[in-house]
Amino acid sequence: MQKRESAIKAAVQKHGKERKNLLPILQEVKQIKNYLSRSDVAEIGVEMGLALAHVYGVASFYHFIDLEERGQNIIWVCKTISCSMKGSNDIVMTLKERLKIKLGETTSDGKFSLLETNCIGWCHKGPAMLINDEPYTDLTPEKVIQIIDDYYTNN
Amino acid sequence: MAKKKVKRVDLIFKGCDCNKVLTDALKMPKEEIIQMLLDSELKGRGGAGFPTGLKWKMAAAEKGNRKYIICNADEGEPGTFKDREILDQIPLKVLGGMALAAYVTGAREGFIYLRHEYRFLIPKLEKTLETFHQWMEDFELDFTVKLFIGGGAYICGEETALIESMEGKRGEPRNKPPYPTHDGYLGKPTVVNNVETLVYSMMVMHIGSGEFKTMGVKGSSGSKLFSISGDTPKAGIHELELGMSLDDFVKEFGDGNTKSVQVGGASGFCVPRNRFKEVHVGYEDGLKGYSIPTGGSMMLFNSSRSMYNVLHNYLVFFEEESCGQCTPCRVGCQQLLKGVEAVKYGEKSHKYLDDLLHLAATMKLTAKCGLGQSVANSFSSIVENFREEMIY
Q: Which residues in chain A touch residue B87, judged by CB atoms under 8 angstroms apart?
């Protein structure tokens, strides 16, 4: 907790207290645990001198600022039409089976969360997904299992 | 008006000495650069098609010494991926375009608003910024560019929502006017240009406005990057002259069984096979028949696809991405989605589709920004042309 508070202080100090720095600060604090807790949001508000309602309003607006606890790695599978036409549903089904979780859930070892997202800009190489910041394209069920296995081996 | 067949162009990704283009351009009077852009008739390549020279001219005419140049790299329209490729392959051309805009308008600060989904480009872009800032020193142009990373919101591609987001607020579009060129980021005159537009501004300086205008047709001059996906053997990014007919486009890119083409992404129009001949891709003026401007998203669907599923996918997208600020869009998107589901599952009569078309038309009139207004484009064009697929 102590560590977390000092991280928030450091982020606010680094970027500055003006409201225009709110999004970069939210992103930086989110990076620590892959999500923002309610108390993080409140703390950021106090540090920046902004109303909690404002900070929460902004944090909850953006898809990639998670307010729910997530795993160490977040998988975002693109569900928009071009990827969907190329079989993104099979990718989601394979991931559900391999990780033994449903969409929106986190594996029991805390390693992965599985989510869907809108167009990630790889329509010509669908189905596509992001794991954290890294894009993976031209996916097949076999390929995603390999990707997940590699994560377990290498990280 | 002579109709253009599909004509491939190799301009935007072709190697060119950016440093030299800038060296020459920055020696020219500012007015001359603006005039060149006006003469080229270059229009915004993000989709809205505002004349680039005019935008710069307006920002240049504003008083005050704090102005901003923002590169809109919040590419989120379904079916669009050309900005990612540009930023990956030729980031210096983008920054060069920003430097031109800065020189012309007197801005000293710039931002690349990069969508969260493209974070993997950050290391490369930061490296390019180092080179670019060195150039700026050499040119003695006081201009620095920073990256600003989006939070994941389609609506932030709308320029005023983008600015709100950069000011630490929810990405909710503003009323226009005032336009960003007068009252933009932090209340200062701001030029917001699409990634591709900035590159083309450099290309106009490179090849000249006359040469640029030899491509395309009147009112839709030059070339454009098209992001082509769906049922096509040639998925990918293709640079083509503007003004081609959809029929020619499908002959080149279709799989022989194309049923419809969605021009301009989820917010664009669905054109069925029987209208391919009369529809052209370009800005509204200058083309005979029906023309559709586009940010470059072209999605092809063949006969194996259900247009109900296509529309449903778009509506889920809009329902999630509506910022929720104005009622027509927030509630309208929800009701259109519920409505098509109800008709499909027999909970409502097929006549209910007419009520939904009416609702879409109302959204077009009353929604605050382009998102809410453009839902009707895909909704009406799909429902009207593929009504039976919505029902059975």
A: none
